[in-house]
Specification:
about 190 residues; mainly alpha; single chain; elongated; 11 helices
Length: about 190
């Protein structure tokens, strides 16, 4: 941190030093101070994606979703093929209760990458608003690999899958998903003993 402060003392507009310091501050929970450093960078270069990313995360940390949304939206405009920006914008829209926009951003993100965490987040929102077929499609893409997933994650996955099948009135499939959740739960209990 001392080197960064020295770099800023020598050049108060040093963008890289501001971004690194902002990242450290945000990581230590000093979101407001991190945002100040990001604003310094963005006043020089309004397209600095590092500063925007840190600022968006810091605003989220402060539960200031409108401000976070502004930066995630701007990042989506600058880098439209980045699924993470669309996913984060969807999360901001969810917190602002703009569910149609959140769904649209999840769909954009899913077209770019079917990352399992993204699929599960999208599925939860689709389920919440009654888009059960889309929820099932997203969960199908999110099927966890057993060797890469904790027991708790597997149980949660199968419970969510069972709930979607129930909403679709596919009772046999729902029962099968719930049985898988129980099997993984029993395995987890055996390992705990």
């Amino acid at each position: 941190r001392e080197h960064l402060l020295q770099a800023l003392h020598n050049d108060p507009q040093h963008a890289e030093a501001h971004n690194i310091l902002a990242s450290i501050l945000w990581g230590n929970g000093n979101s407001a101070e991190a945002i100040e450093h990001c604003n310094t960078v963005l006043s020089q270069d309004s397209n600095d994606t590092s500063a925007m990313t840190i600022a968006a995360n810091a605003w989220e940390h402060l539960n200031r979703w409108e401000e976070a949304k502004f930066y995630w939206d701007r990042l989506c405009q600058l880098e439209p093929d980045c699924f993470q920006w669309h996913a984060r914008l969807a999360t901001a829209y969810e917190h602002l209760n703009l569910l149609d926009r959140a769904c649209a951003e999840y769909r954009s993100a899913l077209r770019l990458d079917a990352h399992p965490d993204l699929c599960r987040s999208a599925a939860r929102l689709f389920y919440r608003i009654g888009e059960y077929d889309e929820a099932l499609q997203a969960l199908s893409q999110a099927q966890p690999a057993a060797q890469e997933t904790t027991q708790k994650e597997l149980i949660q996955y199968y419970l969510e899958l069972g709930d979607v099948y129930m909403a679709l009135d596919r009772l046999e499939d729902a029962w099968g998903a719930y049985e898988c959740a129980l099997e993984h739960g029993e395995t987890a209990l055996v390992h705990l003993r």
